[in-house]
Amino acid sequence: MKSNYGVRLLAIAVAAAGLEGIGRPAGVKEGPSALDLARQLNQAFIDVADKVSPAVVVVRVAHKTSYVDPEDEDNPFFDLLPPEFRRRMEEQREKQRKDQEEERRFHRQPVFDGRGSGVVIRKEGYVLTNRHVVEGADKIEVRFKDGGVFPGEVRGVDAQADVAVIKIDPKGKDLTVVKLGDSDKTRVGEFAIAIGAPFDLDYSVTFGHVSAKGRSRIIPDETADQDFIQTDANINPGNSGGPLVNIEGEVIGINTLIRGLRTGIGFAIPCNLAREVADKLITDGKFVRAYLGVRIRSLREDAEYRDAITGVEDGVVVVAIPPEGPAAKSELRAGDVITAVDGKPVATAQQLKNEIRGKRIGSTVVLDVHRFGKNIKVKMKPEAWPDETTPIAHQRSPTSDDKAKGLGLTVQPLTKDLAERFGVEKMEGVVVMDVEQGSPADLKGFAPGDVITEVDGKTVSSPKQFLQALKATDPKKGAVILFTTRGTSKVEILKESGD
User: Fold this and answer.
1) Does the active-site annotation cover 209?
2) Distance of CA 452 to CAs 295, 336, 463, 490, Å?
3) pLDDT in tens, 431-480
4) Can 1-17+32-287 and 404-494 be said to share one CATH topology?
């Protein structure tokens, strides 16, 4: 259960007033009382609400009949609900769906069956919100606190950042515009105030603190641009798209999702990212981001890999290189640790994404890379993120021929016939013929048809070389296996069971 912030703030004010009195020389006039400090803090929150609320809007959406609610039970925006609440919501949604179907049969007027929040960022009538708020929209209404209602249309959306911009015609109305702050300067622990329309309760104001910054991997989608601000300000369904502001009344984030009701864990898109995307949506109608075409994770988060390599403390591990991406055309390899982009250090996957996102498409970037004890520079050209990525499937047919075994893998030289059998390119390496069930390799996802090209940085093209390389590895650190699976270059650490 959330703490009573009013009691806590009053306690802080009392403590502050008490500390002011300690050591005060006789005859010196006393400072403000504890009640005076509490009143000042109380007024500060009132001023923020009064300042920002006129720029906050309620977004009502009439969906297309084929639309699927993004807050269904398997969606991360509405996860971990209490079972009883989930059951009630499911029953309510089913009834709403039936009612909406009946309405659509007999009425031509749109049925507004979804809602969220938004905030005005330009006087010309541009409203910033979440992409999932307007997803599947047939018609949009934007309502202001003073009761004014305007039709809206989607100017552009960016799925990866979950950002959307709605355009309305203000028709001479003098719109109040929020001030966008600098989320990079936002500090953990400072006050955070959320304004929106949770559960159809328009213009609700809740407050708390910035609990953390730089949260990633919140949504189980590796393509998502995730750099969330975490807050314990009370956020609920309907707050999505509304502002998270600081005590100065500056927007520091766009409220986006929650991790369960009444948990005090909500997430907002940092305003710097939201502003960057929104500006492009307004001018171009879309946001084209540059990408390297790699699957990555922070070295800090990969204890096994960190222990297996030497000479680097921080960076971003290249876990895999899909064949269709720009990295596949460069000298970058799975297993590399990227430590800087054009000289700017990167220590997390999101920092790398942030550095690449705004690069000019087709320009050359220089990556500082650590590769098995050596520091090198790799040049490559980021490309525009594709609208759709078509997975490349390869047909496989495992066989029982044995040439060498180790770590649960049975390998054999990759011949032309085997390459054709497994549907892989002929390359220097050994092909996995069998994977022992429950072995380290099985647990890491190895499969027949995978082609192993290196072990601890040593090229292997025969079962004998494979075994020699395994024997030379440190059993405590494990073996760094570079391999290709379904056309994608990947890296994994394999250890003997029990190590």
Assistant:
1) no
2) 18, 16, 10, 10
3) 998 888 888 898 888 998 999 999 988 889 889 889 988 888 888 888 99
4) no
